[in-house]
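Hi support team,

I'm opening this ticket because the web form for multi-chain structure prediction keeps timing out on my end. I have pasted the exact lines I submitted so you can reproduce it. The total is 226 residues across two entries, so I didn't expect it to be a heavy job. Is there a limit I'm missing, or should I split the entries? Thanks in advance, R.K.
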Amino acid sequence: ETGVTQSPTHLIKTRGQQVTLRCSSQSGHNTVSWYQQALGQGPQFIFQYYREEENGRGNFPPRFSGLQFPNYSSELNVNALELDDSALYLCASSLRTAGEQFFGPGTRLTVL
Amino acid sequence: GENVEQHPSTLSVQEGDSAVIKCTYSDSASNYFPWYKQELGKGPQLIIDIRSNVGEKKDQRIAVTLNKTAKHFSLHITETQPEDSAVYFCAASREGSTLGRLYFGRGTQLTVWP
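Hello R.K., no limit was hit. The queue was backed up. Here is the completed structure from your submission:
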């Protein structure tokens, strides 16, 4: 059974640029949730995708957007990057919209 | 929304001692409480969870207790080992809802000294 994978591992961008992060869910999981983890903090919920639709969103602006594909993999897009967007971005997959979530290794984004 | 508080923020113990991390939550509708271990440079790993219909759950050296009335839950690690050193996060959510987002505490850095 393959776990949750994310790419890239690290990314450096400058303010104003756009970025796309990718996530492959664990085999058999149809739900993907994205979290932002700032240094020294707990993960904060960005949004969740279920059956290719956004199922819920946390307190993040519209420049954070996402997609889920028929194979349940997902993308997180961030436009107009700001310095405060520097963080570890985590993807978690689950069998359903609520319950156990399994995290990937994350993508470390640095905005200069 | 839900608010999860976690204490202590750092915890140092001698190898073989026990470690206890405590969390409180605010939303009485929360019914699912997972604990995650995050090692440096890695994503959080689910180590144990508890649901509101259970008061205690054990898995080898790890146990979690839940007090629904007081809205707090705790992680207990016995016979600690250096490889237990990591950041531990508690979380809360509503299982069975249409959106089971996890609300996390701020984490506890556990250091186990040999």
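A quick check on our side: Chain A has a mean pLDDT of 95. Let us know if the file doesn't open in your viewer.
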